[in-house]
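Problem: given the chain below (273 residues), write out its structure.
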Amino acid sequence: MQIMIHHYIDTHAHLFFSDYTDDLPAVLSRAQEAGIDSIVVPGTDVKSSREAVLLAEQHEHIYACVGIHPHEAAKAGHQDIAEIQSLSEHPKVVAIGEIGLDYHYNFSPRELQRTFLAEQLELAVQRNLPVVLHMRESTEDTFSLVEHAVQANAPWKKSTTRPMRGVFHCFPGTAEQAAYVQGLGFCISYPGVVTFKKSTSIEVVKEIGITNMMLETDSPFMTPVPLRGKRNEPANIVLIGRKIAETLDISEDEVARTTTDNAIRLFGLKRQD
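Solution.
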């Protein structure tokens, strides 16, 4: 029996992590075999942003994002923002990210996190690029800073039809909060968390549907069931799409087609034949 291949885009995979040092070519080969047309690799600091750009230069189907993650804000300086700006001019950089606020671990002082988020939102506006946002136990402050950036810069990636300003990755919020960020011009995306038994994410998916949704693996983290506990990789996005299709009682092809179209539109990716 012939296996149906559905074409996906992994919109968030940290392929520069040491987890892939020994077998990245095999990881990319498995992704291609699974129908993953493109992979977006977000940096988390200057070093990893450079590595993301290098991967994008080496592989036609890989694209980079550049940014300072909230965990890394305490180690960064304003010169790092200047370096991120320089890297953002590379033709295969499709967004500023991964940026945001994380009050769960507080690896960086909260005020410093907010400063770096505000500066990088402004950089995205200047470069007219979307952003990849990380939000954990910081909803009120994240929404406040993002809303301010939108209101102060209305022309930034404005669209009257679909979100174009960025994506809240591994979206942790409610259906009402999803509607709010979509109204500001942002997509949401989900990794393997939708397959976890105790996660409420799949209940949010039931309410909001896939119209403004993208998929991600967040590799090497968030490995979906039934592979939980193992290193994650882009090929596993198929398990996420299948779970959403089964939950919503729609075809996997519809999930793949809709989320892929959203990623191509948001990031300006090359459509694979």
